[in-house]
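In response to the reviewer comment on reproducibility (Comment 2.3), we provide here a single inverse folding case reported in full, input and output, so that an independent group could reproduce the run without further information from us. The structure tokens appear first.
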């Protein structure tokens, strides 16, 4: 199975706090992302992230705001990876 590295950036001020829910081990937020591995937008992103909707909301046409972007930074089938993207990812890791 191929693996793909993704760099994810989320604007937490756009999160609809009403969609947060309590679980056994914390407070959770369901997100969804759509990633196009073959194409990038004008900002060099491969996709976006938004909060998940229920089946009923989707059928009613409810759309949640885009919270952030996704960028493919590495692919197991690609022999070379962008060192800038990998460095960016390592800088974002909080530990």
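Designed residues, in position order:
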């Amino acid at each position: 199975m191929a693996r793909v590295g993704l760099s994810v950036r989320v604007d937490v001020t756009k999160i609809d706090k009403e969609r947060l829910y309590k679980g056994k081990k914390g407070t959770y937020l369901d997100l969804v992302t759509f990633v196009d591995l073959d194409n990038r937008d004008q900002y060099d992103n491969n996709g976006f992230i938004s909060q998940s909707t229920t089946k009923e909301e989707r059928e009613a046409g409810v759309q949640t705001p885009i919270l952030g972007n996704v960028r493919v930074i590495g692919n197991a089938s690609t022999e070379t990876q962008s060192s800038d993207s990998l460095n960016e990812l390592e800088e974002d890791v909080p530990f």
